[in-house]
From TrEMBL:
Organism annotation: Flavobacterium ardleyense
Protein name in the entry: YtxH domain-containing protein
Domain of life: Bacteria
Coiled coil ranges: 60-102
Keyword Zinc: no
Length: 108
C-alpha cells in the first residue's frame, strides 16, 4: 500500500512540476496563464477527490469483509461452545445417574 501511495505521490508531483514549467514557459497572455493555472488546480482537486473516494470505498470494503469474517468466527465459536456445553451436560447427567445408583445402595 505504501509503494502505491509513493508512486501516486511521485506521479502527482511530476504532473504539478510539468504543468508549472509548461505554464511558465508558454507565451500566453496573463489571463490565459491564470486560466491554465486555475484549470490545473481544478484538475488536481478532482484527482485528489477521486483518490479519496477510491480510498474510502476500499476502506469500507475492507471493513465489511472484516466485519463478516468476525461475525462468522463468532458464530462458529458459539456453535462449538454450544456443542461442548451439550457434551458437558450429558457427561454430568451420566455421573448423576451413577451417583444416584451408589446413593441408593448406601441407603439400603
Amino acid at each position: 500500500m505504501s509503494n502505491r501511495s509513493d508512486n501516486a505521490s511521485a506521479l502527482l508531483l511530476g504532473a504539478v512540476i510539468g504543468a508549472g514549467l509548461g505554464i511558465l514557459f508558454a507565451p500566453h497572455k496573463g489571463s490565459v496563464t491564470r486560466e491554465k493555472i486555475k484549470d490545473g488546480f481544478d484538475d488536481l482537486k478532482d484527482q485528489a477527490t477521486d483518490r479519496f473516494n477510491s480510498f474510502e470505498e476500499d476502506a469500507m470494503e475492507k471493513y465489511t469483509e472484516t466485519k463478516e469474517d468476525l461475525k462468522g468466527t463468532i458464530e462458529n465459536l458459539i456453535s462449538k461452545t454450544s456443542y461442548k456445553a451439550e457434551e458437558t451436560i450429558t457427561f454430568l447427567e451420566e455421573k448423576l445417574v451413577e451417583l444416584k445408583k451408589q446413593n441408593a445402595k448406601l441407603q439400603r
